[in-house]
């Protein structure tokens, strides 16, 4: 057992807080949450106690859209395409460790090659590497020469779709990713706003994934691709830019209403450097219009997932907070932003009963940050402790796990 206490505990849901509270951890799970005095009363006498009297304790954060196989450099595909799988696997383990050190205890990896994220997921699950819980899609489904075709998920026709989804399911993926439309990462492929699959083909993806009990995440910038993905019954739409046939961003209120009605989540990926540079170069009004869809999706009641697309250019593995500051700048209250990055995102990726919340029975995924993120959201970057499934990393130092055995430590970041 381990007792973690802090000046304030934010269990996750907006509006909830416990002054001078804590969490009692039993192995990989949370045994109890409450006021310090109560927990001290129920904890066995020699329970290790980590006390942070000037800090805030909250659930570990969720980054719902990352690419561990990419290096966040200006040319993220270069390294990915040049690397041998063994080298890439080591780099990916380091990136996972960086995510964890920055307080992220759960990620969805939505575009990988050679099943590398699957193996990393299993190593982290087994406790031989530090890292967040990974839900991985493996190779995303795409068309010949389509968006990210080099990741190995090219399919043709209904039979091809079924076979690829079955193959991914057999390999053990957690989610199926389909490139419903084009993307800017792929030279020569369809343009961002163009569709890659028909509505009927997307239905086949959803149907086949469903047969294997898997959710579907659809990459879509174009309005048609978003509409087709939603109609096909996907679980989440990634990016959700809303571009018309000329590549101009449009409002799509009716479609947002439909997403809300069907419970289709939106993961509007961006990262701190990107939105800040739009704001710096083009001013507040343009920046607000560029990211207006986040506000509208919230108003229409679409479930939101916080995701940075970590791995693509500018999107580093330790800056989820940079994205959360965008939500706050757009007018989301700080407690709602914390809720989005924890409870809400966990629920929208299918882990609502597992993580994202400080409550008895949940996974012991905790974050302790100096100060109060409800007063100053950037406090989320001042990390004192990260706990992932019961393993504690003081000051987010993933090379010094406090509760690992010596064997585990040697494995560490090697
Ligand atoms: Zn992506």
UniProtKB/TrEMBL annotation:
PANTHER family: ALPHA-D-RIBOSE 1-METHYLPHOSPHONATE 5-TRIPHOSPHATE DIPHOSPHATASE. Residues 56-391 form the Amidohydrolase-related domain. GO terms for molecular function: hydrolase activity, acting on carbon-nitrogen (but not peptide) bonds. It holds the Pfam family Amidohydro_1. Gene3D superfamilies: Metal-dependent hydrolases, Urease, subunit C, domain 1. SUPFAM superfamilies: Composite domain of metallo-dependent hydrolases (SSF51338), Metallo-dependent hydrolases (SSF51556). It comes from the Bacteria. This is Imidazolonepropionase.
